[in-house]
Write a structure and sequence with these properties.
Layout lengths: L6 H4 L10 H8 L5 E2 L11 H10 L12 H11 L6 E4 L2 H12 L5 E5 L5 H8 L3 E5 L9 H10 L3 E7 L11 H13 L6 E5 L15 H6 L3 E6 L12 E4 L2 H10 L7 H10 L3 H24 L11 E5 H5 L3 H10 L2 E2 L1 E2 L8 E5 L3 H25 L1
Bound molecules: pyridoxal-5'-phosphate (PLP).
Length: 383
């Protein structure tokens, strides 16, 4: 008898991660490779976190604190919520899964904007929950009206996924639009449709433009907020994130998680990173500077880009340099620069490029300029 798998698992397309540096070196025989593919922190990990984790190594024979007491207590104070609202996860991706596991069953639906961060529809499908996608607006931002329509029309919609800003577009929803949307969703089916607001890039956004997301958690009964240590704190490899969930949902999420889903080093590192104000400041400063440098560069070369509130920019390579995202990705890879094609998001003409250190961004700009030079050479020889 052959093994039988649920249809939704058979249909599952795994997450496509950024190409690792070592793999690229091995495959292409390169000695120096720059990665601008996974929106990581170009300054490395928070030094305070590294120091605390080195000291914490001697405790590794013991299992971690299953309640994550110290870290949750710190997060409670930081976010000004109750201890029981905080749920820790193996990256904020795990919190998505925990919410879906506790709140949906196979046959339910999730609503999202098309081009939503891929981990959402994947986590949903793993639970047998399909995603209904609302087409984007012309400027590639989420079409909240279309999303609301889907929520209203489909009685088995249980969850809405809303990363703000979204990845891979970097585009954020305005507070006014979000407020109206959340008010409407809360009214649908007595507030039983739950909205997951993913603020993985919150620390990078312009605070004059986007409110602290905890505001929405406090204002609405059906909202959870996800945050991560992977971006501004530079701890992507540690796999730790957290969610601020309504107490009832948080209690279910705690029930369905595995007992030691966050490691001892994860707890220690994240806790120390929260106090690393200098590192956060440096990261933010670098991001702001390099966002300006790179936006200006793309603009000067006539490469269309989306206005990003994250630590990356989505560029239209087809219009800008006459190449598909995948083509430019492959070309850049051979020069030792890893970027991120986004055809899996239905965006084959685009390429997502993280902001690196100034020296790394210079290498990337050189790659682009060489491509443009070659293209111009071709045009001249044709005419
Ligand atoms: C929108 C968004 N949410 C969540 C994550 C993942 O966060 P974590 O590393 O905490 O699982 C990412 C990572 O790229 C992201 O872009």
């Amino acid at each position: 008898m052959p093994l039988q798998f649920p249809e939704y698992i058979e249909k599952l397309k795994p997450y496509v991660a950024g190409k690792p540096i070592d793999e690229t070196k091995r495959e292409l025989g390169l000695t120096h490779v720059i990665k601008l593919a996974s929106n990581e922190n170009p300054l490395g990990p928070s030094p305070r976190a590294v120091k605390a984790m080195s000291n914490g190594m001697k405790t590794l024979a013991l299992y971690p604190d299953p309640a994550g007491y110290e870290l949750r207590n710190k997060l409670k104070k930081r976010e000004k919520v109750e201890f029981d609202n905080i749920v820790l996860g193996n990256g904020s991706n795990e919190i998505m899964e925990l919410i879906l596991k506790s709140y949906t069953q196979p046959g339910d639906f999730m609503v999202a904007g098309s081009g939503v961060f891929a981990a959402f529809p994947i986590s949903a499908r793993i639970q047998g929950v399909e995603t209904l996608f609302a087409p984007p607006q012309l400027d590639m931002s989420f079409n909240l009206e279309a999303m609301l329509d889907l929520v209203k029309k489909n009685t088995r919609v249980r969850v809405v996924a809303l990363p703000n800003p979204n990845n891979p577009t970097g585009v954020a929803v305005s507070d006014d639009d979000l407020d109206k949307f959340l008010q409407e969703v809360e009214r649908v089916r007595d507030g039983s449709v739950h909205v997951i607001l993913d603020y993985a890039y919150y620390e990078f956004v312009d605070p004059r433009k986007i409110k602290n997301p905890i505001h929405w958690f406090k204002k609405f009964s059906n909202v959870s907020v996800l945050k991560t240590f992977s971006k501004i704190f530079g701890l992507g490899g540690l796999r730790i994130g957290y969610g601020v969930l309504p107490a009832e949902l948080a209690a279910r999420a705690q029930k369905v998680r595995m007992p030691f889903n966050v490691s001892t080093l994860g707890l220690i590192g994240a806790s120390a990173a929260l106090d690393d104000h200098l590192f956060v400041k440096k990261t933010l400063q670098l991001n702001r500077e390099q966002m300006k440098v790179m936006s200006k560069f793309y603009q000067s070369r006539g490469i269309p880009q989306l206005p990003s509130q994250g630590n990356f920019i989505l560029i239209h390579t087809q219009k800008g340099v006459g190449m598909w995202g995948q083509q430019l990705f492959e070309h850049a890879l051979r020069q030792g620069v890893i970027t991120r094609p986004v055809a899996n998001y239905g965006l084959p003409e685009w390429l997502r490029v993280s902001l690196g250190k100034p020296s790394e961004n210079k290498v990337w700009m050189k790659v682009i300029d060489e491509v443009l030079k070659q293209q111009r050479g071709k045009q001249v020889s044709k005419s």
